[in-house]
Write a structure and sequence with these properties.
5 strands, binds zinc ion, five-stranded parallel sheet, alpha/beta, Rossmann fold
Length: about 325
Amino acid sequence: MVFDAIIGQERPARFLTQMLEKRSIPTALLFTGVDGIGRQRTAITLGMALNCPNPVGVSACGKCASCHKIISGSHPDMVTVEPDGVFIKINQVRDISRQLRFAPLEGGWRIMIINDAQAMNLEASNAMLKILEEPPKHTIFILTASQTTDLLPTIVSRCQQIAFRPIPHEKVAQLLIEDRGLDRQTARTLAITTKGSLGKALSMDVEKWKAWRSSLVEQISTLSGETIQPLFAFAETLSGAKDRLADALEMIMMWFRDVLMFKVTPDRIINEDFEAKLRLASQRESVSSLLEKVEAVHSAQKALSKNANARLTIEVMLLHLRRGDGRN
Ligand SMILES: [Zn+2]
């Protein structure tokens, strides 16, 4: 198992390979980036490389007992800590402390993966910091977070940061075409909507996603209805599907960007399969009205990231998206 097998992460791969070649292993690594771009697989590959008794160069053999245990998730020294609910709590960090009193069980390296480290509450963060200040031997901590600013600066300063970039859309689209047999248009739109997260794109039920997207476009492109009732009903549906809300807003944002784009460079739109609807919308709306709508979606995204009331935020946004319609 070599790092090169992790798609689209050449720089982290190069860095970790050099680190292994020099045998200079930092106590703590911080893998930043969005979900689904290979951070987990990289942590596992690193654990394998460090523990494999028959490495090929600096890469794990993938065949020995140690490699098999890690691949199957049963290696006792590969420990993963995840948020328990919303937070990683102090008890979970105390658990880590307790485990660290003992040497790695299989005599190699212990890899402690702290997923979504930003979910550590203050108490847990401080306890974690204490551990990182007096690191035990033969243990590597791998913290994952979307960005360094989500963590206490004192924790970040103890870690070697490795930034994982979103995978280029073209690459994700190509893999979706090859692996999933998707047509080019669907693959491209899915790649753009999932923002370079290959894991997310691959885990999507494509037929369901297409139906969901069509219905969203239908509702958003006909939002100029005269009665306000359908708008509130739409707000209720959107805000009720919490796990899809962020995706829905991204899709709505992409829609209005496309309507705007259609006025200037129609060959650069993303939602090519809705070209007729886009043409109509772009003829109906002025640039300034469209810019206001993009801003309204952006404000809603910002508000929701700060845990604003979802229903209210969406209602306000939809009212803005409706207003200004019909101007030229
Ligand atoms: Zn091996």
